[in-house]
Design a protein that fits this description.
The protein has a seven-stranded mixed β-sheet, sandwiched between helices. The protein has about 170 residues and is an alpha+beta fold. It has a domain of about 110 residues: Gcn5-related N-acetyltransferase (GNAT) (Aminopeptidase). About 35% of the residues lie in helices and about 25% in strands.
């Protein structure tokens, strides 16, 4: 098992920007392959527009937080918290690079996000994802997230999850 460290980072940092690009490219390419068949990937112009359209500025205080995970010292994953109100936040940008998958990073990122959320007074986490992102859906189910009715109308949102957070206990990640 490789060592992970997780810390808050600015959404426009070089590491966060590179991870956003990798995340967006992967999920966009999967959508294009699903919609248009194997071998289809996101057209370059569409990819650049999509990446540029979401700066992540809402994942910086006071509206949110972005955590970057490093595996063996290399930026390998992210998770964002977007504050919705005083007690609810949305998980977003949950991602681990392919080469770091299977090392426990996704679990650690979720736990760190939950602990960070508790520290911000959040009592309920919500998220949306696509039906074809089966790995993500399995991760959420394994960690206590339950399917719930839609809480937003995102263009790619096909299934919604929520988890009520316990109010005690935090873990150390560094």
């Amino acid at each position: 098992m490789r060592t992970w460290t997780i810390a808050t980072e600015a959404p426009d940092s070089p590491a966060a920007t590179a991870l956003w690009r990798a995340y967006y490219t992967e999920v966009s390419d999967r959508w294009f392959a699903r919609e248009y068949g194997p071998g289809h990937s996101t057209p370059a112009d569409d990819l650049e527009r999509g990446i540029a359209s979401e700066t992540g500025s809402d994942l910086a205080p006071p509206t949110g937080t972005l955590l970057v995970g490093r595996c063996a010292g290399v930026a390998a994953g992210t998770v964002g918290l977007r504050l919705l109100d005083a007690t609810r936040a949305e998980l977003t940008r949950v991602y681990v690079r392919k080469e770091a998958r299977g090392t426990g990073g996704a679990r650690l990122l979720l736990e760190a996000a939950e602990d960070t959320a508790r520290g911000l007074g959040v009592r309920r986490l919500v998220l949306d994802t696509r039906l074809d992102l089966v790995e993500a859906r399995a991760l959420y189910a394994r960690h206590g997230y339950a399917e719930v009715p839609a809480h937003n109308r995102g263009p790619y949102a096909e299934v919604w999850y929520a988890k009520d957070l316990e109010t005690t206990g935090t873990r150390a990640y560094a």
